[in-house]
Design brief:
The protein is an alpha/beta fold and about 325 residues long. It folds into 2 domains: about 5-150, Rossmann fold (3-Layer(aba) Sandwich); about 165-320. The protein is about 30% helix and about 20% strand. The protein is built from 10 helices and 13 strands. Helix 6 links the parallel strand 12 and strand 13.
Length: about 325
């Protein structure tokens, strides 16, 4: 399953709109914000328990998964090209077997939960907060809209940092370590995305700029934002992945690449790639196979570390106004 999917759920008094782009979408919200109501309306509609005035409009099949773990997994096993909704009240939502089933499914999943799902690699850009956009008299609808929990924000014009922090010590760290060496600042690795928040909290004396793979960092974003609220001199940047940055930089040239980067959802099959990070890694490996830029995620090919290529990555940092001051770059 791939592409954008729009879903409109409405009754005589309520209306919800969802726009899905990836295999996993997370919906958060306070009590009484309408999360469970949304799932209930869809469930009732699909089972024929609603009356006139209730609609679920979607060009894909929709299913609400519920019940015990075994029955839910059995049902999921036979679903394809389907939008699957799961409410936070379902006990199987936080199990390893369900996470494994999600990652091997070609369906799109809309998961309602206030807690992070650490076993699933979902994007920081697909975490939404459900809230009412306005309350009207009973003769009109209450419109419930989706708002990104972590929207892109405009950073300060210049950010002077003492430490650049990467998720791990793989290829991305090799590139940013080279950039930091030129600028005489520290580049450290958190040794795993779950350690990013811990690192920021344990180095309150530093101005840290954390770079993470946003395509799979969703479950760790809340703890990281808490750490940044404590260490207010620090920042986090969430590009899709390091491989995405290389493809975006112009180091690699390929027909159709620009369109692929502009609208990834039109090219990424959810049943094949558990996250967009996996897709961009595979794409970069395929495009550079048997060339001087043959890509290895564990260790960066030295041809990427020429002066000209380092400048191309630095230009991305400058263009988005992040990481370093203009003077430093």
């Amino acid at each position: 399953m791939k592409g954008r999917v729009k879903i409109v759920v409405s009754t005589k008094r309520l209306r919800y709109e969802l726009n899905l782009r990836r295999n996993i979408t997370i919906i958060q919200g306070d009590s009484a914000s309408g999360k469970t109501t949304l799932i209930q309306i869809i469930s009732d509609y699909l089972s024929g328990r609603t009356g006139p005035g209730t609609e679920v409009i979607c060009d894909r099949k929709c299913v609400v998964l519920s019940g015990d773990t075994e029955n839910a997994l059995t049902q999921l096993r036979f679903l394809t090209n389907t939008v699957v909704f799961v409410d936070e009240q379902e006990k199987f939502l936080h199990t390893k077997v369900f996470a494994k089933a999600v990652l091997t499914s070609d369906c799109y999943f809309v998961l309602v939960t206030r807690d992070g799902l650490n076993m699933l690699p979902y994007s920081v850009n697909e975490i939404y907060y459900l809230k009412n956009s306005g309350y009207y008299q009973n003769t009109r609808q209450v419109y419930n809209s989706m708002h990104q929990v972590y929207p892109e924000i405009d950073p300060p014009e210049k950010i002077a940092v003492s430490t650049v922090l990467t998720e791990d010590s793989n290829s991305g760290h090799d590139m940013f370590d080279a950039i930091c060496h030129d600028l005489k600042i520290t580049c450290d690795s958190a040794d795993g995305k779950s350690n990013v928040a811990k690192y920021i909290l344990s180095h309150k004396d530093r101005q840290i700029f954390a770079i993470v793979d946003g395509a799979a960092f969703g479950a760790d974003m809340q703890s990281t934002m808490h750490a940044i609220a404590v260490n207010q001199k620090s920042y986090v940047w969430t590009p899709e992945s390091f491989e995405y940055l290389i493809l975006q930089s112009g180091i690699i040239q390929a027909e159709g690449l620009r369109e692929m980067l502009k609208n990834p959802e039109e090219f990424i099959e959810s049943g094949k790639y558990s996250s967009w990070e996996r897709f961009f890694t595979q794409l970069l490996e395929d495009l550079t196979q048997n060339t001087i830029y043959a890509y290895n995620k564990k260790k960066l090919n030295l041809n990427y570390l020429t002066k000209g290529n380092i400048e191309k990555i630095k230009k991305i940092l400058l263009d988005i106004g992040l990481l370093l001051s203009h003077d430093q770059i």
